[in-house]
Amino acid sequence: MKIIDDFSFYGHKVFVRVDFNVPLDKNLTITDDTRIRAAIPTLEKIISDGGSLIIGSHLGRPKGITPTCSLQHILPHVSELLKTKIDFAKDCLSEEAIKKTNALKPGQVLLLENLRFYASEEGKPRELPNNISEKEKAVAEQIEKINQKNMAKQLASYATVYVNDAFGTSHRAHASTTFIADYFEPDNKLFGYLMQKEIDSIEKVMKNTVHPFTAIIGGAKVSSKIDVINNLLKKVDNLIITGGMTYTFTKAMGGRIGNSICENDKLNLSLELIQKAKDNKVRLVLAVDAKIADNFSNSANIQTVPVDKIPDGWEGLDIGNETEKIFTKVIKDSKTIIWNGPPGVFEFDNFCEGSLAVCKAIVHATQKGAFSLVGGGDSVACVNKFKIADKISFVSTGGGALLEFIEGKQLPGIKAIRGF
Ligand code: AMP
Predict the structure, then answer these.
(1) The pTM is what?
(2) Of 145, 187, 340, 371, which has the fewest Cβ atoms less than 10 A away?
């Protein structure tokens, strides 16, 4: 497999799948352009080599043609960042798109309309009537799978080279992220810079690990992180379990958690994970105290109590000072750190201290030579809130894709290019 730096795009037409799924406000103005900026180096390399560029992306979760999800809204900003005029094809599979891609000259750029305006991008039928039989449903699904292959084939026909730089969607087997790659020779499909950096960083953490290795897994629920925790328990030296899921563990061990968030159907699972950590000689680090509130709001009354003695009517919204100290020590002594999910409701200024302490400890360890990787929408939002992104070794753009990678799954968008 070729790498982008060794490839000359001169004279090639290049289909680049990017992840321009950026948040827009109600006036359809971009509120965070991180994902666009992240893809710019790859796009610049292709243009400066003398390639013609066809950019494909999704935006939002449209069900068919949805004007608020049009990529036209982001076109001026992409053009500004690339410092190049960009043409637009109003339908990614239309005659117009075919003509425009055919006519592209070296250095010219075309942005295709939202790929997910077609259900075939995802390969699943949309909004089937309720009254159809299982057999009819299976036929509709089959048809969409065929449409998906056809869509991939048509998008591939626009180009001589395929580049995937959309790490955020690499866990999806979609027409433009996966099936399209089948139509290119092995030497003519490659990862963009962003995708390569994501893969290298995650593999550095998960495969070529320098110990001690600490994972900090927080967030709201255990249920969404079970597979991640299970796989990490095979790899890490320390596993810090924090955030809302703390209380499911605390209750499972017989503690009083008041009104804290808890998944009662995951109590046994929590005990199994505790046992598994023991069996694998992993140090499982849980909170010892909690900053609690008398309602879920920033202006609630606050007190700090032992994590297993939370009175009724109160709920844990952040870790307490003792826990901060314990987490900080473990993190500071680590050589590899991965963080997904905040230890508290960091969106409330009165409950973001625990998240800040974790951020500071990761920065400290990184400055001492540790490799740190932070990923997942909320942890990245935390890192941005505290303005420390440039002090972390790598901030991933992937949410679901990152989690599935850490779970040890093969991601279809990666496999389509390198074969595993
Ligand atoms: P996740 O998407 O699972 O990573 O969850 C992130 C969310 O978990 C953030 O919005 C946090 O506000 C929330 N969170 C963290 N700690 C708690 C807690 N103790 N109670 C409720 N929500 C929490």
Answers:
(1) 0.91
(2) 187
Question: Could you give the 3-state DSSP secondary structure of residue 50?
Answer: coil
Q: How far apart are CA 278 and CA 219, in angstroms?
A: 23
Two tokens at 282? 């992993």
**pLDDT tens digits for range 153-188:** 999 999 999 999 999 999 999 999 999 999 999 999
341 lines ligand 1 (CB under 6 A): yes
Instruction: Domains for the chain: give ranges and CATH numbers.
Output: 4-198 (3.40.50.1260), 209-407 (3.40.50.1260)
Q: Is 77 in the pocket of ligand 1 (CB under 6 A)?
A: no
**Contacts (Cβ under 8 Å, ≥6 apart) of 308:** 250, 253, 254, 255, 256, 257
Amino acid residing at 65 = I
In this structure, are residues 47 and 53 in contact, taking their beta carbons and an 8 Å threshold? yes
Counting from 1 in the atom list of ligand 1, the atom nearest the Cα of 242 is 16
What is the position in ligand 1's atom list of the atom closest to the CA of 344?
Answer: 16
For residue 364, give the 3-state DSSP assignment: helix
* Any atom of ligand 1 within 6 Å of the Cβ of 354: no
